[in-house]
Amino acid sequence: MIEFHLDSRSGLSPYMQLVRQVRQALRLGVLSEGEQLPTVKDVVAQLAINPNTVLKAYRELEHEGLVAARPGVGTFVTATLTDTSLAAHGPLRQELRRWLAKARRAGLDDESIEALFMTTFRTAAQEDIA
Amino acid sequence: MTTLLRADGLGLSYGRRWALSDCTLDVPTGRVVGLVGPNGAGKTTLLNLAVGMLTPSSGTIEVLGGRPGASTAQLAKVGFVAQGTPTYPGLSVEEHLRLGARLNPGWDDALARGRIGRLGLDLSHRAGKLSGGQRAQLALTLGLAKRPELLILDEPVASLDPLARREFLQDLMEAVAEQELSVVLSSHLISDLERVCDYVIVLVASRVQLVGDIDTLLATHHRLTGPRRDPARLPSDQQVISASHTDRQSTFLVRTEAPIHDPHWTVSELSLEDLVLAYMGHTGSDRGTGPPGQAGHRPTLEVLQ
Fold first, then answer.
1. CB B208 within 8 A of CB B23
2. Rounded distance between C-alpha atoms, residue B262 and residue B218, angstroms
3. How buried is residue B187: exposed, middle or buried, by Cβ count under 10 Å (0-12/13-18/19+)?
């Protein structure tokens, strides 16, 4: 079982924070197939958040095929993220390192790199939605 | 989906002064609704109209399909915890529970006694001797044990310390999860509402400035920062909520359903607090281009982290 926490400064909506924490736990192997997520009531009582927020996060995870709700019992993990994505981390990190080295050679400092990354990331994310 | 709260041209005047005017709302059930606004904006007036303690001077209001306070059935459907979570100081906790059982047809005594037990309150204690947090919890217990479909709370946590505030909201949210309860709560602190509410009504100077599902509102509002630009040259589907300019740069807060593709803008997302504050400054049409709250009357809203 995992425990959720909320960071009010993260700029992410509470529901998105819950979704990410489950994904993160799956990636790191903290949660594995068959394990139960905390019940809505437990999360609500622990974090003082709206039950709809928790339901929305769980629905999103269900939609992604990561968990399944068993009515009257709870929500259970049905998939794992560890094997597939962990394997891809290495090569992606190397590419990113090469890109970072290139950006530094071009004279970009930390802040410019971050700004460039974030604007590109956001634009790409928006184009995906559109 | 049924309607929790519907108001049409609702207004209330005290003599010549309008405490609430031209209020039109349609809030669905199953929500936890946050009513925000500076002190004196009309929050308490709206809540008192919703429970039937006040009668509208103009327009109509309907709560769960009925006129507030019109019948015993209507009264049983709506629970109300007034400002300052009032209790009877001379009565004991036990006497409060007995009073609740007498006055409310749907009283859930097991729920009330279970909660009092969990809170560790002594039944023989007089309410006047309880701490602020305990008194608020007693008032919440009475409101919940009534088993209403809608619980209305007017500034329930305003006078509580951070720990008591947190415990109160935890218990309230637990009840929402367990009892399929809709909630309307007012606060002048946005930080209180950010976690617990999924719907917001912003009242400023007796008028509704913004209303809607919080996630939808956050998804349709953006902050655009970029080279200086005349607001008239923004696409027509982008409604400008606030704008500020330096000699080179413009910052707009816009509302739009469409994604923003203009590469000149750096688009950033807003928090509920940013959004509410922008609308609090957006009180008149005479101020299209100034930053919010700079000209004229500035509403005060406390922002705590």
1. yes
2. 20
3. buried
pLDDT in tens, chain B (305 residues): 589 999 999 999 998 899 999 999 999 999 999 999 888 899 999 999 999 999 999 999 999 999 999 999 999 999 999 998 889 999 999 999 999 999 999 999 999 999 999 999 999 999 999 998 999 999 999 999 999 999 999 999 988 888 888 889 999 999 998 888 999 999 888 887 888 999 999 999 899 999 999 989 998 999 999 999 888 888 888 889 989 899 899 999 999 988 888 888 888 888 888 899 898 876 544 333 333 433 334 444 444 43
Q: Is the CB of A8 less than 8 angstroms away from the CB of B177?
A: no
How many other C-beta atoms can be found within 10 angstroms of the C-beta atom of residue B62? 19
CA dist B63 and A104 (Å) reads: 62
Contact A49/B at CB under 8 A: yes
Structure tokens belonging to residue A83:
């094997």
CB-based contact A74:A36 (threshold 8 Å): yes
C-alpha distance across the termini of chain B, in Å:
35
Residues B243, B224: Cα–Cα separation, whole Å: 9
Could you count the other beta carbons within 10 Å of the beta carbon of residue B81? Answer: 22
Q: What is the ipTM of this complex?
A: 0.70
- What is the distance between the alpha carbons of residues B85 and B131, in angstroms, rounded to a whole number? 12
| Best B118, B119, B169, B173 residue to mutate vs chain A (most A CBs within 10 Å) | B173
Length of chain A: 130
**Alpha-carbon gap, residue A63 to B137, rounded angstroms:** 38
Q: Which of A40, A43, A50, A111 to mutate to test the interface with B (most CBs of B within 10 A)?
A: A50
Query: At CA A113, angle to CA A109 and CA A116, rounded to 5?
Result: 140
Q: Which chain A residues touch B305 with a CB distance below 8 Å?
A: 8-9
Letter string b/e over residues A37-70, b meaning 16 or more CB atoms within 10 A of that residue's CB: bbbbebbbbbbbbbbbbbbbbbebbeeeebbeee
Say if B2 is an interface residue toward chain A (CB within 8 Å). Answer: no
Q: Which of A6, A53, A130 sits opposite B259 (nearest CB)?
A: A130
